[in-house]
Amino acid sequence: xxxxxxxxxxxxxxxxxxxxxxxxxxEDIKLMDGVAPRHDDTRxxxxxxxxxxxxxxxxxxxxxxxxxxxxxxxxxxAENAAAKxxxxxxxxxxxxxxxxxxxxxxxxxxxxxxxxxIIVQPVTSTSANASIAKAVAAGIPVILxxxxxxxxxxxxxxxxxxxxxxxxxxxxxxxxxxxxxxIWVLRGLAGHPEDTNRYNGLLESLKGTHVxxxxxEHGDWQYDKAKKLCETLYLNNPQVDGIWSSGADMxxxxxDVFKQFGTPIPPxxxxxxxxxxxxxxxxxxxxxSPEYSPAQG
Length: 297
Known about the structure:
Elements: E1 3-6, H1 15-19, E2 35-37, E3 56-62, H2 69-84, E4 88-95, H3 100-112, E5 117-120, H4 129-137, E6 142-145, E7 156-159, H5 162-177, E8 182-187, H6 193-206, E9 212-218, H7 223-236, E10 242-245, H8 250-261, E11 268-269, H9 274-283, E12 287-288
Helix pairs in contact: 3-4, 5-6, 7-8
């Protein structure tokens, strides 16, 4: 699945927002490999609106660096990319730790430091909207990453297409368990737009079927929490035909639970993390792994 981009093409998330010169036509925009403009949004940020000569100070407001292995990797990749780019004099990474108020304070802090651009991975679809608008009004471009918000106040975004992601998994699971199957649903972080939109994709898959969701829980995309949830679900009712997992480390956790109890692993959706791929190869259970382009992070 291609990453989906609104407004300004990104050579990197930040570099093009600051270095773009003349982008009079959409076809002139240079996109990262694996990124395509979102088909339902043709708006463009004015060429050169945020142009500034380097060196640049870049801020990043992360919704939760230690949420799972993917978020840890993205944070370190961002730090590494900034360290290698001579145009970036300083990279400031702030961790909201899933706290909406902390993220608002972090963005306000970055504005006060007069950074040249801010990357935001939102905690929820609404919590940081006012701060994002404030940053843009102060002349600071805001790059929204992995999580759509209920506002157009940002400068540009890079997304993976969460609804499609969830629907691909849902379509496969419906086909695999049959029209009358009973499934568990393991969701991500409650309130996070990526969780909401992946789940909406699943609901689209279930329309017109008799598939029943017999259990639905938020595992926060974390291994430890998802493992406890799957243990509880299994002990309460092990009769499940399939599992829709929103991804990250939750699939690996649930697979380990079934192995722990010595019972067959039901069909379960997953996300392209290394640990999960290793399980899939070794244990041979039925699964599917939709994945975003590496350009997503």
